[in-house]
């Protein structure tokens, strides 16, 4: 069976148009038409050169992935999409809707209204093996193409207007670097026009890729899954920390911040008795006190019933936050858990595929990252 490429696979589409002597300016109009007419055939796109139709028909599809299932959380603000890829594999994407009018900013009510953030997957499975993350239990299956990454945004955009994108779904985004960069360039161009500062890439700390990221994608937001203030604890819960030692990671982040002049988001999952004591808060404060960061404390979502970790108490989370804020003046937030009943929360994205007996009853393990771990 012929394998078609996604029309949103920018490098492939650009190369094929160039080879056929067709102006690549038509790419944006092709994407715009597919976005506005998701059930269309490529032959229906108006005002293309005749040779373009032949090319599109034989090499490309409007979508190479399909939405297999949509799960709505009882919280009313979280939707999880189970997306089937052309190769038969599945990934998950999560839409989270926030109301910016809730809460205060500088003592005054916030402006704005509801806004949707899409949590996107970059790989099927993940090779990082973080012990608190359900995706890590799948092992690594394959990288997504840039088109498959962009298609998650297209599928989600048909349900709601997406304002922010976070690469915190399945996979380590910087391990699929070329496709990631290409997909984000599509998202920030016409017709999507997302602002780079509204796109966040989360990484466990792939140092060589962090060193390239700012020059390839200026203006992007970077989130780092730190999860421990010292190398020894980090190695216990994140096997990848051996390859990317904390000291070298912090040096890379210092350079990134100097070049980008942007805040870095620090993700820190709270594991009872492992990394959530007051001494750990002081160690983290000292580690980060020379940086401009926002620390996001993430309550742990147990992965099934056999997890080796326990969730930190609310009191421990509160004490930890007070130390970072009060002693070190580090802006610190606590992640609001969303979509836990549909396995859409942090660290819980994993695909347990339906077998023939359960057919459409897709049973999903506890959750993905609602901002990737």
From TrEMBL:
Domain Radical SAM core, chain residue ranges per copy: 112-341
InterPro entries reported in the protein's UniProt record: Aldolase_TIM, Methyltransferase_A, RNA_MTrfase_RlmN, rRNA_lsu_MTrfase_RlmN/Cfr, rSAM, rSAM_sf
Leader sequence segment: none
Stored SUPFAM superfamilies: Radical SAM enzymes
Classification via Gene3D superfamilies: Aldolase class I (3.20.20.70)
Location(s), subcellular: Cytoplasm
Cofactor dependence: [4Fe-4S] cluster
Gene Ontology molecular-function annotations: 4 iron, 4 sulfur cluster binding; metal ion binding; RNA methyltransferase activity
Annotated transmembrane regions: none
Protein name: Dual-specificity RNA methyltransferase RlmN-like
Species assigned in the record: Gossypium australe
Upper classification of the organism: Eukaryota, Viridiplantae, Streptophyta, Embryophyta, Tracheophyta
């Amino acid at each position: 069976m012929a394998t078609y490429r996604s029309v949103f696979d920018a490098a492939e589409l650009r190369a094929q148009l160039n080879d056929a002597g067709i102006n690549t300016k038509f790419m944006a109009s092709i994407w715009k038409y597919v976005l506005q007419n998701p059930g269309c055939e490529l032959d229906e796109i108006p005002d293309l050169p005749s040779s373009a139709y032949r090319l599109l028909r034989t090499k490309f599809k409007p979508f190479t992935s399909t939405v297999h299932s949509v799960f709505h959380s009882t919280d009313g603000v979280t939707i999880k999409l189970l997306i089937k890829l052309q190769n038969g594999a599945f990934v998950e994407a999560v839409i989270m809707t926030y109301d910016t009018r809730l809460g205060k900013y500088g003592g005054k009510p916030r402006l704005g209204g509801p806004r949707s953030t899409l949590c996107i997957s970059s790989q099927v499975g993940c090779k990082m093996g973080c012990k608190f993350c359900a995706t890590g239990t799948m092992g690594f299956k394959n990288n997504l193409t840039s088109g498959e990454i962009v298609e998650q945004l297209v599928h989600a955009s048909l349900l709601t207007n997406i304002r922010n994108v976070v690469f915190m779904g399945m996979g380590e985004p910087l391990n699929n670097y070329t496709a990631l960069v290409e997909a984000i360039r599509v998202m920030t161009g016409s017709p999507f026009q997302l602002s780079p500062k509204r796109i966040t890439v989360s990484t466990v700390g792939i140092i060589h890729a962090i060193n390239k990221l700012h020059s390839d994608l200026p203006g992007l937001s970077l989130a780092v899954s730190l999860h421990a203030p010292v190398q020894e604890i980090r190695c216990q819960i994140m096997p990848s920390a051996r390859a990317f030692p904390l000291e070298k990671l912090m040096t890379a982040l210092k350079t990134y911040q100097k070049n980008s002049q942007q805040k870095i988001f620090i993700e820190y999952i709270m594991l009872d008795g492992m990394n959530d004591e007051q001494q750990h808060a002081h160690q983290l404060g000292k580690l980060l006190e020379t940086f401009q960061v926002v620390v996001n404390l993430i309550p742990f979502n147990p992965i099934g019933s056999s997890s080796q970790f326990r969730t930190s108490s609310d009191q421990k989370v509160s004490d930890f936050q007070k130390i970072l804020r009060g002693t070190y003046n580090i802006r610190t937030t606590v992640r609001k858990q969303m979509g836990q009943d549909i396995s859409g929360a942090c660290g819980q994205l994993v695909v347990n595929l339906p077998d023939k007996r359960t057919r459409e009853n897709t049973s999903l393990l506890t959750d993905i990252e609602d901002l990737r771990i």
